[in-house]
Amino acid sequence: MNGFDINNEQIRQEQLKQMEEAKKKMLLQILSKEAYERLGRARLANPEIVSQAEVYLLQLFQAGKLKEKVTDAQLKEILRVLSSGAKEINIKWK
């Protein structure tokens, strides 16, 4: 490995860190405190399902479809549906 390869890896790691921070900030805007905490705990048990839930929530947020913060109950339903392998999520938003 030369110095150029090491520098590219450092840049890539920094970009990943910045992306994770941006995702965390958006999730804090999207989720209630309880839902955010549940997401963190669920990540320990099933990181793949949590990643899918995060992508789904961020897409809803970016599309302007979230009018208020996602509650713990709504997040539980999203995680339940994703873990069951369902193809479509139907959440009743108030």
Structural description of this entry:
With 94 residues, this protein is an all-alpha fold. The protein has a single domain, classed as PDCD5, DNA-binding domain (Helicase, Ruva Protein, domain 3), CATH 1.10.8. The chain is 74% helix and 0% strand. It has 4 helices and no strands. It has helices at 3-30, 33-45, 47-62, 72-84. Helix 1 (3-30) crosses helix 3, helix 2 (33-45) runs parallel beside helix 4 (72-84) and helix 3 packs across helix 4 (72-84). The relative contact order is 0.12. The mean pLDDT is 87.
List key phrases describing it.
Helicase, Ruva Protein, domain 3; 94 residues; mainly alpha; 74% helix
Number of strands: 0
Mean pLDDT: 87
Radius of gyration: 16 Å
CATH topology: Helicase, Ruva Protein, domain 3
Helix content: over 70%
Low-pLDDT residue spans: none
Determine the N-to-C terminus distance.
55 Å
Order of helices and strands: HHHH
Summed up, the helix count is: 4
Number of domains: 1
The CATH H-level superfamily is: PDCD5, DNA-binding domain
- What class would the helix/strand composition place it in? mainly alpha
CATH class: Mainly Alpha
Percentage of β-strand residues:
under 5%
For the report, how would you describe the main beta sheet? none
CATH architecture descriptor name: Orthogonal Bundle
